[in-house]
Amino acid sequence: MSDEVPERPPGSGLVQALRVPRNGAVGVAVGVAIAVSAYLARVFELLGPFAGTREYPGVGPEGWFLILAFVLATSTALLVTSVLTVIEAARLARRL
């Protein structure tokens, strides 16, 4: 019996095959673009004034919309990256 741990193949091959870095960059770009456009539309009232009168404690409406824009950007980036990676995995599976 040997106490040596067998070497594992590098995991970067799968990451590169599924083009995860490119998908991540596209996801971040789409997420940021959507979040910036939503933030600008809300803060500068490009779609008209905000319908309700609300209290925004602490940071004011711009701060709360900025926090929401960050959440929108990150969730959209993750969604787009996941969808693109699944599509790439399906293409690779069909090719094999």
From TrEMBL:
It holds the Pfam family DUF7536. The keyword Membrane applies. The chain crosses the membrane at residues 24-44, 64-87. Keywords: Membrane, Transmembrane, Transmembrane helix. It comes from the Archaea. InterPro entries: DUF7536. This is Uncharacterized protein. It comes from Halobellus salinus. The lineage of its organism: Archaea, Methanobacteriati, Methanobacteriota, Stenosarchaea group, Halobacteria.
